[in-house]
Structures are given as structure tokens and as C-alpha cells.
């Protein structure tokens, strides 16, 4: 298949592009800076320049494309959530999706499938409630962003195209994601539960997420909202204990909720709220996880080369 990818230079996107090439797919990548991307991703890919918030992609980028994977978006944890930053986070998802899909209409080249990233933040902070794709959506900034993001993916004129909204959990892997800032702290023996540690963490290993994207591209039975999480959510306390064991370090130093709220402001929601999200739908599709349990995932990520 010929696959168009946005966000291909990010933590998930880099691995996705490599796996697509390994699986003999032809890759088209939209990027703000093709020269920088060419040096950073020295792979046989076709590059087109695109500013996702201000323009639609070139028509040539869509030529012969059978699948689209849309991962582009401002990191939600890059900066403190000022009003300005929250607007950037929202627009980076809504406007990029709108421009990308409008470009399909303008180019007159409809793909077979569009996979668009979303997040489990759409459920809000839900305590011990088990959440499936049909659970009511939540409240709060992240829920609002995800709701607008998914709504934008239903662009008029593309009703005949199979669409998948991957509601992605906490992505774990080497060289980025949620562990990028945590690993140095835990390696020093200064890690531990956040707040009371009872908040649920619905996570997925980066390799499984990429494999799920590949699976979704070629399996027509995958459609609609899909929880992209491992089948075994855990509490923050168990995550901290398991990460400490994987690193052979103590992990009992608790970070008080109040301290986080003072330090991070509204962004503390990222680590103090929780969602216990089910992976039943993706398992029913027939997808098999390589890392279904947190111990296996963290042992692999933390092992020395």
C-alpha cells in the first residue's frame, strides 16, 4: 500500500515509518521541514512540505495513496498549560485534521482508510470505572480537545472512507514518551507513586501501538473509535513498583498532589487523573499484543543493550 503519514518524525511516527518500509509499503511523509526530516529519517520515503495549521497539503502528496495515518499534534506535556498553550494544543489537532482531510477532497483522491490519532483523555478522570469505546465522554480540557479532534475527523464528503480513531493510552518505549522524564528520576532511586498512587494508568508499549496501526491499515473490520491500550491497566502505585524493580532501584518516594499542582498548574491533570480503559474491542478484532502486561513491557524497555 501507499501510505501518507503525518507526525512521522515523532516518538511513535519514527518507528511507524521504519516498520512501514520494512513491510514493503510505500511511504509519503508530510513535514514542515523536508530537509531536516530527510537527514533525520534517511529512508526511501517521499517528502512534501506542509504547515498543518495554515494550509492543505499539495495535491501531489495524495496521488495513489490508499491509507492515511494522521499523528501530528503539539505535545500535551511540552509546556505549562497557559491559555495560549492550550489553544496551540487544540489547534494543532483540529486545524491539522481539517486541512489534511480538506486536501483529500480538493485532490479528488480518496484513500481506502484514514487512521487518526485521539487519546483516552476523552474519558476524563473516571476513578475505578471500566471504560469502553461506548462509555460516556468526560469533562475537562483534554476531554474537550479529544472530542473536537474526533469530530473534525468526520469531514463531510468522506463518508465512504473507512475511518479509525485510535484513542491512545500512555505510550511506553525507549527514547521518548512518558518514560523520557521518569527514567532518570527512577534510576537515581528517587521515583515513586504520584499523589495517592490509586489513579489508573492505561498504557501501551510503543511497538504494540505501531503494530496496531499497521493492523488497522490492512484489516477492514477495524473501524470507529478504538481504545489503543494494553489489556491490563494498572494503578500508578503498581507502575512505580514495577518500574523500580525493572531498574533494580527503590521506588517509594511519593510526590504529593499539592506539590504537583503548584509546580505544573492545570497540567498536573496528566498525572493525577486516571482512566481504567478496556482493550476488549481491539482484542475482539483479532489483534495480539506482544506486551500485554506491564512487567514484560518495562523489563524490555529498561534492559541494557
- CATH architecture call: 3-Layer(aba) Sandwich
What's the total helix number? 11
Label the overall shape. Answer: globular
Given helix and strand content, the structural type is alpha/beta
CATH superfamily: NAD(P)-binding Rossmann-like Domain
CATH topology: Rossmann fold
Q: C-alpha Rg, in Å? A: 19 Å
In whole angstroms, how far apart are the ends? 34 Å
Strand percentage lies at 15-25%
Please describe the topology of this protein.
Blueprint: E1 2-6, H1 11-22, E2 26-31, H2 34-40, E3 46-49, E4 67-70, H3 83-107, E5 113-119, E6 130-131, H4 141-152, E7 162-168, E8 170-172, H5 179-187, E9 200-201, E10 203-205, H6 206-218, E11 224-228, E12 234-235, H7 236-247, H8 257-264, H9 269-272, E13 276-277, H10 280-285, H11 294-302
Helix pairs in contact: 1-6, 3-4, 7-11
Amino acid at each position: 500500500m501507499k501510505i501518507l503519514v503525518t507526525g512521522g518524525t515523532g516518538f511513535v511516527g519514527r518507528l511507524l515509518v521504519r516498520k512501514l518500509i520494512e513491510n514493503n509499503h510505500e511511504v509519503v511523509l508530510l513535514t514542515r521541514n523536508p530537509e531536516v526530516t530527510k537527514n533525520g529519517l534517511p529512508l526511501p520515503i517521499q517528502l512534501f512540505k506542509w504547515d498543518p495549521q495554515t494550509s492543505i497539503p499539495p495535491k501531489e502528496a495524495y496521488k495513489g495513496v490508499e491509507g492515511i495515518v494522521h499523528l501530528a499534534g503539539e505535545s500535551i506535556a511540552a509546556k505549562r498549560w497557559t491559555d495560549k498553550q492550550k489553544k496551540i494544543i487544540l489547534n494543532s489537532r483540529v486545524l491539522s485534521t481539517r486541512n489534511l482531510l480538506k486536501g483529500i477532497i480538493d485532490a479528488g483522491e480518496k484513500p481506502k482508510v484514514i487512521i487518526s490519532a485521539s487519546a483516552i483523555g476523552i474519558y476524563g478522570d473516571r476513578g475505578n470505572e471500566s471504560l469502553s469505546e461506548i462509555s460516556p465522554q468526560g469533562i475537562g480540557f483534554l476531554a474537550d480537545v479529544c472530542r473536537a479532534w474526533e469530530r473534525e475527523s468526520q469531514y463531510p464528503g468522506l463518508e465512504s472512507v473507512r475511518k479509525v480513531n485510535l484513542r491512545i493510552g500512555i505510550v511506553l518505549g525507549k527514547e521518548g514518551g512518558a518514560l523520557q522524564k521518569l527514567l532518570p528520576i527512577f534510576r537515581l532511586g528517587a521515583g515513586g507513586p504520584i499523589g495517592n498512587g490509586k489513579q489508573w494508568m492505561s498504557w501501551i508499549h510503543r511497538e504494540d501501538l505501531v503494530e496496531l496501526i499497521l493492523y488497522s491499515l490492512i484489516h477492514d473490520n477495524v473501524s470507529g473509535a478504538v481504545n489503543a491500550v494494553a489489556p491490563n491497566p494498572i494503578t500508578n502505585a503498581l507502575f512505580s513498583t514495577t518500574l523500580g524493580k525493572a531498574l533494580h532501584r527503590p521506588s517509594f518516594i511519593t510526590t504529593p498532589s499539592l506539590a504537583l499542582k503548584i509546580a505544573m498548574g492545570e497540567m498536573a491533570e496528566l498525572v493525577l487523573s486516571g482512566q481504567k480503559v478496556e482493550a476488549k474491542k481491539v482484542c475482539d478484532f483479532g489483534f495480539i499484543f506482544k506486551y500485554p502486561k506491564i512487567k514484560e513491557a518495562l523489563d524490555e524497555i529498561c534492559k541494557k543493550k
